[in-house]
Amino acid sequence: MKVLLLGGTGEARALAARLHPEVEVISSLAGRVPDPALPVGPVRIGGFGGVDGMRQWLVDEHVDAVVDATHPFAATITAHAAQVCAQLEVPHLVLARPAWGPGSAIVVGSDTEAADTVANNGYSRVFLTTGRSGTGAFKGVDAWFLIRAVTPPDADTLPADHELLLSRGPYDYEGELALLREHRIEALVTKNSGGAMTEPKLRAAAAAGVPVVMVDRPPLPPGVHTVTTVEEAAAWVRAKIAG
Ligand code: NAP
């Protein structure tokens, strides 16, 4: 039984650790970050070359099942995997961590809508945590941004007035609260990533009375089989082996 595990998340690393070495799991990373946290077991790095490339790769490698444990906002690779697995009739599972409850957040559908919300509300000091690919939408917004990302955004996507904070979670409540206060933040912009690693910023914002603008998740492809925990995903793989 050979499983392709599409990763780049803590859940994917945890699943690889649960299954390896009992199951032959090849983890796949996009190769976006120069020093990725690596899962145990074999790893391949880099894109497949679209739908056709992924289909060929699954055939060449004789992959028996695919588990997509990519980030909830990695919609392209998730769509590709769903399409290719349906075509090849390869068992396919999406491991999607539960979304955060929106609480009192202003929920928006895209980075562009989030930028409009910041501008329309006149927030002038903004904590922007939507990642390196999310900064471009805010370029024309007249505000100061504290931008937190794992790797630096491209210079031409950065708003004029900003401070860049390069770091990788997990974060804790006290640290997040201190950051909001130190920088006199007036609004927090976040994706609805879900998960415990970056959730403390939401509690800190609530405690500090800082409004939250939350970008909603892209929808999953229709009809995909989905679980929300590493345990369930491991059980699904084991059931495939047994069956
Ligand atoms: P994306 O927009 O869905 O994918 C863009 C392209 O990157 C895909 O078409 C594919 O290239 C390649 N790719 C993405 N994930 C891959 C993987 N696990 N293995 C091999 N190729 C992959 O993805 P993204 O949002 O840029 O995210 C890239 C990676 O970062 C994912 O592994 C994801 O789990 C992780 N990540 C993303 C976020 C986020 O906010 N988006 C946050 C944390 C971690 P080809 O078409 O050439 O196959």
UniProtKB/TrEMBL annotation:
Keyword rRNA-binding carried by entry: no
Residues annotated as transmembrane: none
GO terms assigned for molecular function: precorrin-6A reductase activity
One Pfam family this sequence matches: CbiJ
Pathway of action: Cofactor biosynthesis; adenosylcobalamin biosynthesis
GO annotation (BP), single: cobalamin biosynthetic process
Superkingdom to which the source organism belongs: Bacteria
Keywords: Cobalamin biosynthesis, Oxidoreductase
Statement: the UniProt record of this protein carries the keyword Transferase: no
InterPro entries: Peripla_BP_I, Precorrin-6x_reduct
Protein name: Cobalt-precorrin-6x reductase
Gene that specifies this protein: cobK
